[in-house]
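My main concern about presentation is that the manuscript never shows what a single data entry looks like. An entry of this sort, consisting of the sequence and the corresponding backbone structure tokens, reads as follows:
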Amino acid sequence: MNLKTNIVVIGLGLFCGLSVSAPKMPYQNPNLSSALRAKDLVSRLTLKEKVGLMKDVSDAIPRLGIKKFNWWSEALHGYANQGPVTVFPEPVGMAASFDDQLLFHVFDAVSDEARAKNNEYKKQGESQRFHDLSVWTPNVNIFRDPRWGRGQETYGEDPYLTSRMGVAVVNGLQGPANAKFRKLLACAKHFAVHSGPESTRHQLDITDVTPRDLWETYLPAFKTLVTEADVREVMCAYQRLDDEPCCGSSRLLSQILRKDWGFKYLVVSDCGAITDFYRTHKSSSDAAHASAKAVLAGTDVECVGYAFDKIPDAVAHGLIKETDINTSVIRLMTQRFELGEMDDDALVPWTKIPMSVVNSPAHEKIALDMARESMTLLQNKNDVLPLSKNSPKIAVVGPNATNTQMLWGNYNGTPLRTINILDGIKAKLGTGNVIYDNACDLVEDKITENALTECAIDGKTGIRATYWNNRNYEGSPVITEQLTSPIALTTLGAHQFAQGVNLEDFSAKYETTYKPSLSGPIVFKFEATGFAELFIDGKSISKTGSWRANPNKVPFTVEAGKEYKIEVRYKQLNNWAASLALNFGKEIPVTYDALINKVKDAEVVIFVGGISPRLEGEEMPVNLPGFNGGDRSDIELPAVQRNCMAALKKAGKKVVFVNCSGSAIAMVPETENCDAILQAWYAGEQGGQAVADVLFGDYNPAGHLPVTFYKNVQQLPDFSEYSMKGRTYRYMTAEPLFPFGYGLSYTTFNIGNAKANKTVIAKTESIQLNVPVTNTGQRDGIELLQIYVRKPGDKDGPLKTLRAFKRVPVASGKTALVTLTLPAKTFEFFNEADGIVKVSPGDYELLYGTSSDSKDLKPLKITIKKSI
């Protein structure tokens, strides 16, 4: 080792004996700041090279040591689109915990797993989408309407709760603020004023947002993540706001985000948002004008499109200067240096995280802890819960009882193992004490008979399946086999479609001849992740090419004795996990007589229903009763489930309803027909155990609703209206079914009278609030103390708004004295005269208690003095 290298090693604090080549150029010097290194590196790039770095799949530039980089990875509740990884509950469920400390540990675990898997990918020389260190999480949009399919990805309807949970997510993902290198880059999305409908998001122009709604509802979480959590990426949204596309909005990106809030990092576009400028919004004439508009407004990286390929044309025609391009590329390369991605692994501690952390027992425990904390008990008549483990017979019925994939939510990875709800209950009671029946479908009131008994090929009953380890049905097949049951195949969990078939880069054909014995209508139930096309007698009757499986029902009429050649062609696409399902036959109506007879020996029936991520989600081609394109048109529980529980109740059963959903369900009939209702959300890989732990009393539920549960869709304004008037607990005047912040326990609590250290303060002062919380029941438990603020006489402001919360564990018969410090900004509201959010003199009410419902809150008057 020469003297110059010795000096470099000592200066970097490296381990003894480690040899590192002396840096040749400033951008190669890890002792310089990331910004200086990026500026030097960008000065060495051609315009074409710069543009290649501004796309989500960024080009490698070997001459400068720049490797291929994928800006688009996902970590919504686990490192997504790969497995095995630990899959935590869907964010809206985690929001029900009101536990930002545990949420930090969740995302610290997620970032550990992301780094571990990325380290392994690098060893294998692999670089592809979803496997990199920039993760587009968290979604901090406000869940303003339960019909929005992507609301499950958010932390609920309240700006303060969303802010606190969002900070925990970012801190867990990015690592310690004082670390030299970021663990991952987190991303606050979708900026701004974005929450459905999914069907119109590419052309929607939102014009009904008042300044108050903007600053008090839609922007606070983004501001908090920028100014408190130092989030490194912000994703701009698809739609227009006041006729300007969000990804080309100078007001949003240049003025508010960068100038007002001081954000100096990276803005990424939602996928395809820049091409929307000229394809759907018609605000730009072509790709060159769209790319110039986006970059000048402040968008640095384009996901999919790619309009940015035309940036050189925009520069040539004077629409934008190369110096403007430099600004964006310096920002994005700064963040790559911040990750340590441009440096030797020996310098970056995160590169040492081993694969043993992935799906580790410690991470599984965190997933179980969070799943338990997400469980929200909404009803418990006559204390029917918890159930006794000594019950002679308990029936478990319903379409979600064995639905493993439902527990994973959306934007998910695949766990090593998943405990479904039926298995969780069986583990408590033993298999012999549980009666199980699927009972009904999630949505449809019919059952499809299996027609494969009337299908044959090559003289054999069933379907012939042929597989190739390429996407073009080329060459010799890997394997050919006969299927005698409906097709239900997935690569999730590293399952092959058949022996020897790749998990990626494969194709398949499924062929048979159907000779029905009866004439009449039948249906084909057909869904796939990837490309799939269904042919009958050589004619295409349905096809799909999607990155998520979506139910598709195709009606068809057959004649008895006639032969129909049926073929399905399938290709795995991109990096997505592959799946294919096909069943066909006559539909017959659902009846409950057989079910009632089957459960006759059970006093208690646990009905596990709700909906699923295959029905609510992002821009999905779903068109079923109550569901439209990933959103919902109706918020009630599907009728087939309501009718099933009504039949069980009529038969004299005690009905415990476990509702699985990523959004609020209107279930007025269920409050009559069910003795208990447990809201279980999409609870992740440990969801089945968490549900069973609550049902049988091994865990005392403490979840509280992060969203309002409405009585019916009539209580909601039009879905496309973005005004907050009448929406959420903050502006709703009608009585909800279950209010925001509501949740029951197996014990009871009493909130005593609060005492403040002062009730008259200056507008810069904080208040110390002491609140006694007493457990008046027979079990130890946790209560959620909630602090709301209202400003009397503020006609346009919220009725109340959450400003603090605290999970309070209290032993049976004991009292805990909770001390909360409320900073001056607790009393911030929008000031119409000044057009900003500020603390203004006047009278305020602190409302403290156990939910947002007025009957659960006590008032305390606070006065803010005028400045002298």
Observations:
- Residues 446-589 form a domain with the Jelly Rolls fold (CATH 2.60.120.380).
- Confidence is low (pLDDT under 50) at residues 1-20.
